[in-house]
Amino acid sequence: MKQITVGNLEDIALGAAVLGTGGGGDPYIGKLLAKSAMTDNPPVPLLDVASLNDDDLILPTAMMGAPTVMVEKMPAGTEIITATRALAEFLGQEIVATMPMEAGGVNSLVPFSVAAQLGIPVVDADGMGRAFPELQMVTPTIWGIAATPMAIADDKGNSAVIQTVNNHWTETFARSLTVDMGASAMISVFPMTGKQVKETTIPGTVSLTERIGRAIREAHERHTDPIQAVCGVTNGFAIWQGKVGDVERRTVGGFARGTAEIEGTGAYQGRTLEIEFQNEFLIARDGDEVMVTTPDLITVLDAETGEPITTESLRYGFRVVVLGIPSNERWRSARGLELVGPGYFGYEASFSPVEARFGGK
Fold first, then answer.
1. Model pTM?
2. pLDDT tens for each residue of 119-149
3. What CATH class is the domain 2-205?
4. SS3 assignment for 32-55
5. Extents of the domains making up the chain
6. Distance from the first to the final alpha carbon of the chain
């Protein structure tokens, strides 16, 4: 069984930010939280999904809220333990492991903070293979797995356990509580058995984040192209290069929403790519032409370093390369597209796999 140490966190954080498609929170903050918890504790075991027993209790853990808020409102690190213990007490069962529910800078690393403090493993899987803005947008929802009971906690010690009739209502109530808690909170959600994790989640996501981060790091060490390294690990495509000309960003209803305009350079000179986001980058257009759309991943990388840029840190003048990365096949099903396709977010665009458009280039 692989053991995750503090030394692995840098690669995991970097790779998670690539899959986070601009969201999932600042990877630096996630790394600090995990490092603080792991420094004086044994390494955290990383469990393969296949090794879970069917009746094991797995409690996924995450941060909920607008990533922009964390720039000024750092998590204390105690909130997630409060939430996890509250849910375990409510369920009256022993926790076997925790796991991330999305790949993102903070949310891929929060479970390592929990695991280190509680002495439990992290499952090598997640519920998205990327990041999405709303709580119900995970593959277990496709199979009818309930998000509740869930627990939520803030930095002041407040916590709540909620139960809802469906996962959309979970998002509604939890988002309202998150806003009241200062627009960011920690949650333990989607309690699952080992059998449910094996059947409904996306295996190997944590290992993939580490491979992506390692590919970027090794490209720097070897003085090779880090962007090509990322494309190689993710099967992604470089769809644009340019300079950030404008970013319009606002925090509304617990989300970071906005638009980024990237003025083309090189082969894209004279054209402008517009990317819209709701915590995560959701659709990229060149004029009226849709280049990539959710559920496929839109990732913005620094043109020189190949390191990912989140929606809250994107600024005028940045030189960037935009990648389109294929999403997990589960998102491309009819039910998956109903949950996270362009139509859900109000875009009048049909989903077309990124590899169908760019695979021959």
1. 0.94
2. 999 999 999 999 998 999 999 999 999 999 9
3. alpha beta
4. HHHHHHHCCCCCEEEECHHHCCCC
5. 2-205, 226-358
6. 40
